[in-house]
Design goal:
The complex is a heterotrimer of chains A (511), B (307) and C (294). Chain A has 511 residues and is an alpha+beta fold. Chain A has 15 helices and 20 strands. The two termini of chain A are 49 Å apart. Chain B is an all-alpha fold. Chain B is built from twelve helices and no strands. In chain B, helix 3 crosses helix 4, helix 10 runs antiparallel to helix 12 and helix 11 packs antiparallel against helix 12. Classes of the chains: A alpha+beta (511), B mainly alpha (307), C mainly alpha (294). Chains in contact: A-B, A-C, B-C.
Chain lengths: 511, 307, 294
C-alpha cells in the first residue's frame, strides 16, 4: 500500500516536472526571459516616465539621439549628424535606409509627423510638455529636418532621446489624434519587434533582423520575453528554477545571498538615482513649523548617519551626496556646504532654534522602506519624533498636490539622463507650475531653471554652482546618498552593467 | 492542577461532589475546569499576554533601536546567531524578539478594538431588528446582505487608502467590516426573549423600550456575545495582519506582525525565520483566542452536560 | 429582486467611496501631472459634475453593456474581465475541491468517533487552519514545496499544475467551518430517531453513514460551501498576488493601487453579484436536496 503510494507520487511528480521544464524557455531555442516588477500596461512610451517603460521603449523604439553607455553622453541614433545653427535652431540629418517593423522606410515625414503629434496634441498636455521648448519643426529635405526652438534649451538632447519616432499617420491626424493607437501593438524602428502583448502579464519580442547600424548595436538574442512579476520573492524563485534569466532592482542582501548559488550572478553597480528629503521650508503646510527655520533644517542634515545607511543598507558603490543632484552628472557642482554626521551639533542647532527637546514631524515616503526607517531612527536620536507615512507614490503625490506634506523622502532616477537639468527641472520649478519646489526661494528657481535656458556650457555650470550652493547653504533639502543598481542574472547570459545603472538589456548575449 | 487548587481556595463549593447542589454560576466554573481545550487556550493566551506585555520590560532592547552593523543576524540556534539577539535581527538591525513581543500589544489592541467596534454595530442593529421586527428587521436584513456580499478585503484596502493608515483607522475599518455574526446571533436571541412572558410583563408595567432592551434583553444575549466577541478578536487580528502585509495597514516602524512578515518577504529564501517567527506568533495568539472562544461556547451552552 | 437591489446599493457605495478616495482626474492625468493638466482632464472627462449624475451615467452605460475603459490598463474593462476571469474561476473551483476533500472526510471521521482522539485531532486541525494567515501559509508552502523540495512551480498560471499550491492555500481557510458543520450535522442526524432505528436493526458502518446520514448532514454544508465559493472569488487577492496568478483578485489589487476607478468599480459589482447568485443557487439546491422543502 505504502510502496504503491510512493511510487505513484514520484511518477506524478516526474510527469509534471517534464511538463514544467518544457515550459521554460532557454538558450536552446534562443529565448531570453526577463522580469519586471511593474506591470506593463501600455506599449507606447509617451505615457510613462518609469524605468520599465523606458527600457521597453528602447527595445522596440528608437529616437534621434541616444545616451551612449561608456561616456554617458548624447550621440546621434536615428540622426546621422546634426548642426547647431544658433541658440534656437537645430538641423538634423537622418540615417537613410532605416526601416519600420512593417518594412516602410523612415523619412523626414515621419519625424515631422511625430513631433507635430507631440506639440500639437492639445488634449494631452503630457505630450506637449515633453517638447514645450519646441516652436515648430520643418522638413528641409527627404532626410533632413530643422527644429526651431522657442528659447534656448539646454536639455534638448534628452528630450530628443525620449521622443520615439512614430510612423507618419499612425497616431491619427491633427485635431483628431488617437493617443492609444499604439498602446497594444506597436510599430517602431527599434532592435526588437512586438510579437504579442498581454497587458500586465508579458510582452513577447522578436529580434528586428533589419535593425539599422546604430549606437545600440545589433541584438544578440533572437527572442525576448518581458514578464511582469510584481513579487520580488517570486522573481527570485523563478530565477533559481530557471523560469527567468534576468531581474533587476535587487537589494544587496537578497542579491548576495542569491549569488551563493553557482548558476546565478549578482552585480551591484552604480546608479544615477539619488535619495533626498524635501523640506517645506516655505511653510506651504502652514506657518510656524520648526522646519521653516534654517537652523532646524541644518540640524536634520547633521542628524542622519548617511554614510552608515548608504554602506549597510544600500551597499555597492552607493555613497553620501551633499548636492541636490548625482555628483556624476553634468553640472553637479560639488564644492558646497557639507553637513557631516554629528548628532551633538544637530542637538545644539535645535536648542539654538528653540527646540531643545525636539518636535514632531510627519515624514512621507514611498520607496526604500528600510532606509526610511533608518532615517526615522536617526532623527529620533536628536529628539525629532518622526511619524512615518510610508505608502504608495500615488498617495504621496496627491497629498503633496494638496500641500499637506511637510517633509518627504524622495528619490530620483533621472531616467538615464546624465544632466543636472533632468532632476532640477522638476524639483525647482516655479511653485505655481509644480508642487515639488518647497523652498519658497525665487532665487533657487531662477538659478536652477535659468541654467536650462542657455546652451553656453560655462554659463550653465556657473548657474548650477550658484544654485546648488544656495540649496545646500539654506538646507532646503537633506541630500542623502546615491543608490546602486543590483542585477541578478543566470550564468547562461552575459550582461554588462553601465555607469548610469540603466539596464540596457538589448545588449545581453548568451555566454 | 494549579488551576484546580486555586479555584478550590477561591470558590470551594465548585468542587462539590453532588452536582445538584451547584448554583448556575458554579456549574459554569466547574465546566470550565473540566474543559481541556478551554484550559489550554486560556493558559496559552495568558502566557502570550504576559510575554507580550511584561516581556518588553525585562528586555533592555527597544524594538525601535537599530544597529546597521548588525543586520539580519540569525536566531541563536542557527549558525552565526548569538545570545545577544535571541531571535536574531531584522533588515535594520533591530532585535527581532523585542519586535515580535511588542507586536503582541499591537495585535491585541487592534483585535479587541475592532471586535468592540463590530460588537457595538452588530448588537445595536441586532437588538433593534429583533425587538422591533417588521420593516426595520427587513431593512437590517438588507444591510446584512449588502455587507455579506461585499468583498471585505478590497473594501478595507480602499477605505484605509482613503483615510490614511493609522491604528485607529485600521481598528474602525476592520470593525465596520466584521459585525455580521454579532447581528445574526443578537437578532435571533432578541426575538426569542422578546416573546417571553417577563418582557411582556415589563411592557405591561409601563417600562420604556430602552429600559426593556437594557434590563431584559441585553442580559439574555450577553453569553453568546462574549463567545462571538472572543472569536472575532481572532478574526480581526488576522485581518489587520493581512492589511499590513499588503502595505495598507499599520505604518512602519511600528512592529505589527503582518508588517514584519511583509518586510521579511523579500528574504524568503535566505532568512526564512523573518517570515516564520512572526507567523508563529500570530498563529499561537489566534489559536489561543479561538480555543478560548470555542471553550466558552461549550461552557456557556446550557445544553452541554456536566459529568 | 433583492439581489439586484443589493448589487445596486453596493455599486453606489463603491462609486462614492472611490471617487472620494481618489481624484479621478489625477488618476487619468497620471502621477507626474501638474495642476493645470489635471484641471484640463477634469473638464474634458466631466469629473467636475456632481457625483450622483456621474453615477447614473455610469450605470446607464453598464446597462447597455459598456463597462467603461480602464485608465490604467488602457483597455475596455469588459475585455479585461473576460481575460482574467478564467484564472480566478479555476482557482476558486479547485480550492473548493481542496476544501471538500479535506473537510468532509475529517468531519466524518470526527463525527463517527465523537470525543475520541481522532475527533480531538480533527478539531485541532480545524482550529489551526483557522489561525493560519493565508499569505503566510502561501509563503511557507513556497519555501517548502518549491524551494526546499522543488516539486511545484513557484508562480504563474500556465497549467493546472501551477494552481495546486494556490488552491491548497486558498482552500485551507474554508476547511474549519465546513468541517465543523459536517461534524455537528452528522452528529445531529445520527442522534435522530430513524438512524437509531436503523442502528438497532443491525445496520451499522459506512453504508449507513453514506446512505442515510450524509444526505441530511450535507444540506447545511452545501450552503456554506456556496458562501465559501463566493468568498473565494473576492478573497483570492492575497493568494493571487503571492503566487502571481493573473486573475481578478490581482487585477483588483493592482487597480486599487493604480487608482483605476472604472475597473475597481466593476470588480466590486462582479464579486458582489457572484456571491449573491451563488447564495441563491445554494438555496435552490438545498430545496432540491431537502425533501421537507420540496
Amino acid at each position: 500500500m505504502n510502496k504503491t503510494a510512493i511510487s505513484l507520487l514520484s511518477l506524478i511528480s516526474i510527469f509534471f516536472s517534464i511538463i514544467c521544464s518544457s515550459l521554460f524557455a532557454d538558450k536552446s531555442d534562443d529565448t531570453l526571459v526577463i522580469a519586471f516588477k511593474r506591470e506593463i500596461t501600455n506599449l507606447d512610451y509617451h505615457y510613462g516616465t518609469k524605468t520599465e517603460y523606458l527600457i521597453l521603449a528602447d527595445m522596440i523604439d528608437d529616437s534621434l539621439f541616444y545616451v551612449e553607455n561608456d561616456n554617458l553622453s548624447y550621440v546621434p541614433s536615428l540622426a546621422s549628424d546634426y548642426k547647431v545653427v544658433n541658440d534656437v535652431t537645430l538641423d538634423v540629418n537622418l540615417k537613410k535606409g532605416v526601416k519600420f517593423h512593417d518594412g516602410a522606410e523612415m523619412t523626414a515625414d515621419d519625424v515631422v509627423y511625430t513631433y507635430n503629434f507631440i506639440i500639437k496634441n492639445d488634449k494631452n498636455r503630457r505630450h506637449t510638455k515633453l517638447a514645450s521648448w519646441l516652436k515648430n519643426i520643418e522638413k528641409t529635405g527627404p532626410y533632413s529636418v530643422r527644429f526651431n526652438l522657442k528659447e534656448p534649451y539646454a536639455n534638448l538632447y534628452n528630450d530628443l532621446y525620449r521622443i520615439k519616432i512614430r510612423k507618419n499617420g499612425i497616431m491619427g491626424t491633427e485635431g483628431n489624434w488617437d493617443d492609444n493607437a499604439q498602446a497594444n501593438s506597436l510599430i517602431g524602428v527599434g532592435p526588437y519587434k512586438v510579437v504579442s502583448f498581454d497587458p500586465g502579464v508579458e510582452v513577447v519580442l522578436e529580434r528586428n533582423e533589419e535593425y539599422f547600424d546604430g549606437p545600440k548595436g545589433k541584438p544578440a538574442i533572437k527572442n525576448m520575453i518581458v514578464r511582469s512579476i510584481p513579487d520580488m520573492g517570486t522573481q527570485q524563485a523563478e530565477l533559481m528554477s530557471g523560469g527567468i534569466h534576468w531581474m533587476y532592482n535587487v537589494k544587496k542582501d537578497v542579491g548576495e545571498s542569491m549569488a551563493k548559488n553557482d548558476r546565478i550572478n549578482y552585480q551591484l553597480g552604480p546608479s544615477l538615482r539619488i535619495g533626498f528629503l524635501v523640506l517645506d521650508a516655505a511653510g506651504f503646510t502652514g506657518d510656524g513649523h520648526p522646519i521653516t527655520d534654517v537652523r532646524v533644517r541644518r540640524a536634520l542634515n547633521h542628524a542622519i548617519n548617511r554614510e552608515s545607511i548608504a554602506k549597510n543598507l544600500i551597499g555597492g558603490p552607493a555613497n553620501v551626496v551633499h548636492t541636490a543632484c548625482n555628483p556624476v552628472v553634468f553640472g553637479c557642482f560639488q564644492d558646497v556646504t557639507k553637513y557631516e554626521y554629528n548628532p551633538e551639533k544637530a542637538i545644539a542647532l535645535l536648542t539654538e532654534a528653540g527646540y531643545p527637546s525636539g518636535f514632531e514631524l510627519e515624514l512621507w515616503s514611498y520607496r526604500d522602506k528600510e532606509a526610511a526607517q533608518a532615517i526615522v531612527s536617526d532623527l529620533g536620536k536628536v529628539g525629532i519624533k518622526v511619524n512615518l507615512k510610508h505608502g504608495k507614490l500615488a498617495g504621496l503625490n496627491k497629498a503633496r498636490k494638496e500641500r499637506k506634506i511637510r517633509a518627504y523622502f524622495g528619490t530620483w532616477g533621472s531616467s538615464a539622463s546624465p544632466d543636472t537639468a533632468t532632476i532640477s527641472n522638476i524639483h525647482w520649478r516655479d511653485p505655481s507650475k509644480g508642487d515639488r519646489n518647497l523652498s519658497g526661494d525665487p532665487k533657487v528657481n531662477e538659478l536652477m531653471i535659468g541654467a536650462e535656458r542657455t546652451l553656453n556650457i560655462d554659463e550653465r555650470k556657473k548657474l548650477y554652482a550658484e544654485g546648488l550652493k544656495l540649496i545646500a547653504d539654506q538646507a532646503y533639502w537633506v541630500p542623502l546618498w546615491s543608490y546602486s543598481e543590483g542585477v541578478l542574472s543566470s550564468q547562461d547570459i552575459v550582461f554588462n552593467q553601465d555607469a548610469d545603472g540603466y539596464p540596457r538589456v538589448w545588449g545581453i548575449s548568451w555566454r | 492542577m494549579i488551576l484546580k487548587t486555586f479555584i478550590k481556595r477561591l470558590v470551594p463549593r465548585v468542587l462539590e461532589d453532588d452536582i445538584s447542589l451547584l448554583s448556575p454560576k458554579t456549574v459554569v466554573l466547574r465546566k470550565a475546569i473540566s474543559h481541556s481545550g478551554f484550559k489550554f487556550g486560556l493558559l496559552l493566551f495568558i502566557s502570550i499576554i504576559l510575554l507580550g506585555i511584561l516581556g518588553p520590560f525585562f528586555l533592555d532592547i527597544s524594538p525601535y533601536q537599530q544597529d546597521l552593523d548588525k543586520r539580519l543576524l540569525p536566531p541563536v540556534w542557527i549558525e552565526g546567531g548569538s545570545w545577544d539577539h535571541l531571535l536574531g535581527t531584522d533588515g535594520n538591525g533591530r532585535d527581532y524578539l523585542s519586535r515580535i513581543l511588542s507586536g503582541t500589544r499591537i495585535s491585541l489592541t487592534i483585535g479587541i478594538g475592532a471586535a468592540l467596534v463590530g460588537m457595538v454595530i452588530g448588537v445595536t442593529l441586532g437588538v433593534i431588528a429583533g425587538y422591533f421586527g417588521g420593516w426595520i428587521d427587513q431593512f437590517v436584513n438588507y444591510i446584512l446582505t449588502c455587507q455579506l456580499a461585499l468583498p471585505g478585503l478590497l473594501l478595507a484596502m480602499t477605505l484605509v487608502f482613503l483615510i490614511g493608515p493609522s491604528i485607529p483607522v485600521v481598528i474602525i475599518v476592520i470593525g465596520c467590516l466584521h459585525w455580521t455574526l454579532f447581528l445574526v446571533v443578537t437578532r435571533s436571541v432578541t426575538k426569542r426573549i422578546a416573546k417571553l412572558d417577563f418582557v411582556s410583563a415589563s411592557n405591561a408595567i409601563g417600562a420604556t423600550k430602552l429600559q426593556i432592551i437594557i434590563q431584559d434583553i441585553l442580559p439574555g444575549i450577553i453569553n453568546q456575545i462574549i463567545v462571538i466577541f472572543t472569536l472575532e478578536v481572532g478574526v480581526a487580528i488576522l485581518a489587520e495582519a493581512s492589511l499590513s502585509f499588503l502595505g495598507v495597514g499599520i505604518q512602519p516602524p511600528t512592529p505589527s506582525w503582518g508588517l514584519l512578515i511583509a518586510e521579511g518577504k523579500e528574504a524568503i529564501f535566505f532568512q526564512p525565520w523573518l517570515i516564520v517567527l512572526p507567523g508563529i506568533a500570530l498563529f499561537l495568539l489566534v489559536v489561543s483566542i479561538n480555543m478560548l472562544g470555542d471553550g466558552l461556547r461549550d461552557i456557556m451552552d446550557p445544553k452541554s452536560k456536566l459529568e | 429582486m433583492v439581489v439586484i437591489a443589493v448589487a445596486l446599493t453596493l455599486s453606489f457605495i463603491t462609486f462614492f467611496l472611490l471617487n472620494v478616495a481618489i481624484d479621478p482626474a489625477q488618476a487619468v492625468a497620471g502621477e507626474e501631472a501638474e495642476a493645470l493638466e489635471i484641471e484640463q482632464v477634469r473638464q474634458q472627462y466631466g469629473f467636475d459634475r456632481p457625483i450622483l449624475i456621474r453615477y447614473f451615467e455610469w450605470f446607464k452605460a453598464v446597462l447597455t453593456g459598456d463597462l467603461g475603459i480602464s485608465y490604467y490598463w488602457n483597455k475596455p474593462v469588459g475585455s479585461l474581465l473576460l481575460e482574467r476571469a478564467p484564472e480566478t474561476i479555476t482557482l476558486a473551483l479547485m480550492s473548493v475541491m481542496v476544501t471538500i476533500f479535506i473537510a468532509i472526510p475529517l468531519g466524518i471521521c470526527a463525527a463517527i468517533n465523537p470525543n475520541s482522539v481522532i475527533d480531538r485531532m480533527c478539531l485541532g486541525v480545524a482550529v489551526s487552519f483557522q489561525a493560519i494567515p493565508n499569505f503566510w501559509l502561501g509563503l511557507v508552502m513556497i519555501i517548502i514545496f518549491s524551494v526546499t523540495f522543488p516539486i511545484f512551480p513557484v508562480s504563474g498560471d500556465k497549467t493546472y499544475f501551477h494552481f495546486i499550491l494556490p488552491s491548497i492555500v486558498l482552500g485551507a481557510s474554508s476547511v474549519p467551518p465546513v468541517m465543523r458543520l459536517m461534524r455537528t450535522g452528522l452528529l445531529d442526524v445520527m442522534e435522530a430517531d430513524y438512524i437509531r432505528t436503523a442502528r438497532s436493526n443491525g445496520f451499522f458502518g459506512w453504508k449507513l453513514i453514506l446512505n442515510h446520514a450524509m444526505r441530511n448532514a450535507l444540506l447545511p454544508v452545501v450552503s456554506v460551501l456556496a458562501v465559501q465559493l463566493g468568498h473565494k472569488f473576492g478573497g483570492s487577492v492575497i493568494t493571487e498576488s503571492v503566487f502571481s496568478i493573473n486573475g481578478l483578485g490581482r487585477l483588483a489589487l493592482e487597480s486599487i493601487l493604480g487608482a483605476d476607478i472604472p475597473t475597481v468599480q466593476i470588480l466590486v459589482f462582479v464579486f458582489a453579484f457572484t456571491f449573491l447568485i451563488l447564495n441563491l443557487l445554494a438555496d435552490i439546491l438545498n430545496a432540491y436536496l431537502d425533501p421537507r422543502l420540496r
